[in-house]
């Protein structure tokens, strides 16, 4: 609960600052650069070496990729039907395709299902969500941001994307026994700055003054992320014979509100930041209600 209050407080501080002062765009860009290039890679490097991947946990990874693919498909279909710009379609794909499975997912799932559910939540987050963001998310952001005609540029962006590099280094470090205690503590401290600064950054940019078409895009993204995506993951799990806590955690992680890093990635690639940030802020707040309701149904 304290973690959720901290996130809400940082978002509120950003909103208040945005209302009271003219926030320099350079400050926002610096915050976003720290989040994507330092804090997020540090968190991945801290957590990934301690994870062990077992074959029966494939569903947790596949479910996060299913949410991403579904979010992209919904955005592409709706964008084509409603005449959205590429920037708006890409923003909806990122906001609807990735959940805040760490900083919202971990405390919510622990509160709802106990500490024994946390390792499963970490597998879905690290092996599923983070790797999907570092590969598929970069492809979406680059494609809709203007690099769609240069496959080599897409590959280069993925390979050089700091969280993707951190995933590779983290897996290698795990094979060699992990990090020394002192270095691991430093990585955890750097990673701990990610979520507060990300919510602060979103608050500094948040504007609920949007056109009817923008609100339609926000509604479509949230309808997918908070309702349709967990329903699809549940059906997929049942069809695949997955049961018990693994199925529950996969569904709950699919239902978590949008990922802060995905919204920041949208902003860095000059996609529709208004739609991405509003979807994130509203989705995170709504998921604090919708996720417990979905858990009760399970």
How would you describe what is shown here?
There is one protein chain. The chain has 14 helices and no strands. It is mostly helical and 298 residues long. α4 (86-97) packs across α11. The longest helix has 30 residues, at 118-147.
Q: Give the termini distance in whole angstroms.
A: 22 Å
What's the total count of β strands? 0
Q: Report mean pLDDT, rounded to a whole number.
A: 86
Give me the strand/helix succession: HHHHHHHHHHHHHH
Work out the helicity level: over 70%
Indicate the structural class.
Answer: mainly alpha
Estimated share of beta-strand residues: under 5%
**Uncertain stretches:** none
Biggest sheet layout: none
Main attributes of the structure:
80% helix, globular, single chain, Na+/H+ antiporter like fold
Q: Helix and strand layout, with pairings?
A:
Blueprint: H1 2-20, H2 25-47, H3 58-82, H4 86-97, H5 105-113, H6 118-147, H7 151-160, H8 162-175, H9 181-191, H10 194-205, H11 212-239, H12 244-255, H13 260-268, H14 273-297
Helix pairs in contact: 1-10, 2-8, 2-9, 2-10, 2-13, 3-4, 3-6, 3-11, 3-12, 4-6, 4-11, 4-13, 4-14, 5-6, 6-7, 6-8, 6-12, 6-13, 10-13, 10-14, 11-12, 11-14, 13-14
